[in-house]
Design brief:
heterodimer, A: about 150 residues, Alpha-Beta Plaits, B: about 170 residues, alpha+beta, about 35% helix, disordered C terminus
Chain lengths: ~150, ~170
């Protein structure tokens, strides 16, 4: 990755133009050519620096729902419980964290009523309490990752 | 704002990424049998209405050198939590900042920040800075470092759509 790649990553984490030739418009702001910008984005995706180039959606405004859930899992069961949790397609990601509450996962669903259903299923399957911690407010962060 | 069936087809078609070609919206429009102008108008409306919350590149932070992350949580009095949330969100190493419900008695914390850094020491220093500069140290708080990633995919909202998923490029 060179300085131009970093400049692109810092500039294009949001605000991508919606117009007929958006890469040309974004490239002009960066002092690049359209071809160069597209080639670099393809390479950054192919090399795994970017997971994708496109929109992020607000689940609630789409009529869906998302929540963060936590569990305190006995250490010897962590693998088995992770497999039970991850088997639900609504589970978007799942991290082990260093705490008594050692498993934290995000659940996203098109139908809001699926969220309590999935959490109840996980509690029933594992025999462990599942703590639902939906966001009540989001505080706006700007550029997320500065290189 | 209302989201109609065509909006949903469009959102599903670009959920995994926009084609990396000079006229990406024309390419999406062709695939869906829509006019480019219609696609542009819909996307502008969906963005203005906050359905599209962010539009651009999505980084793999670990691969970009942000190898440590922690969830820092505080128990902030309800009357102060919104002000504090806005203050913490202004730090460039805070990548997400939310107010969430306490789950008493086991979980007394209501303000959650994700903090990313190149290594664990950096993340600890960044959280120490939040505590010192925002006089948070006297409040109950915890730092939960991630140990392992069991699963990671972006949240997908259109799992049951008939539009084939398509990667970028």
């Amino acid at each position: 990755m060179d300085a131009t790649d970093r400049q692109i990553i810092n500039a294009l984490q949001g605000g991508f133009p919606v117009c007929e030739t958006p890469f040309a418009e974004a490239a002009e702001r960066l002092g690049l050519t359209e071809d160069d910008l597209i080639a670099r984005l393809r390479r950054l995706c192919a090399e795994g620096h970017l997971s994708r180039f496109g929109p992020m959606y607000n689940a609630e405004r789409l009529g869906g729902a998302v929540t963060l859930a936590a569990m305190a899992v006995p250490d010897e069961r962590i693998e088995a419980v992770a497999a039970q949790v991850n088997a639900h397609p609504e589970v978007a990601h799942n991290y082990a964290r260093a705490h008594d509450f050692n498993m934290w996962f995000v659940v996203a669903a098109e139908q809001p009523e699926r969220i309590p259903a999935v959490l109840a299923d996980i509690a029933a399957e594992t025999g462990l309490p599942v703590y639902d911690m939906p966001k009540l407010d989001e505080y706006y962060v700007g550029l997320r990752f500065v290189l | 704002m209302p989201v109609d069936a065509t909006d949903r087809r469009l959102l599903a078609a670009i959920e995994d990424g926009l084609p990396l070609v000079p006229q990406p919206y024309a390419a999406v429009a062709r695939r869906l049998g829509l006019d480019e102008a219609d696609v542009l108008a819909r996307l502008r409306r969906l963005r203005a209405g906050g359905i599209i919350s962010r539009f651009g590149l999505v980084v793999r932070h670990h691969e970009l050198g942000y190898r440590a992350n922690a969830m820092a949580v505080w128990n902030v009095p309800d009357a102060q939590v919104d002000d504090m949330g806005r203050r913490l969100a202004a730090y460039d190493f805070v990548t997400l900042c939310y107010r969430r419900p306490r789950r008493l008695p086991n979980w007394p914390f209501n303000l959650f920040c994700m903090v990313h850094g190149c290594d664990r020491d950096t993340v600890c220093e960044q959280i120490a800075r939040l505590n010192a500069e925002q006089t948070l140290a006297s409040l109950p708080h915890e730092v939960l470092f991630s140990r392992r990633r069991f699963k990671q995919r972006g949240a997908r909202y259109f799992m049951k759509t008939d539009v084939p998923a398509r990667g970028v490029a």
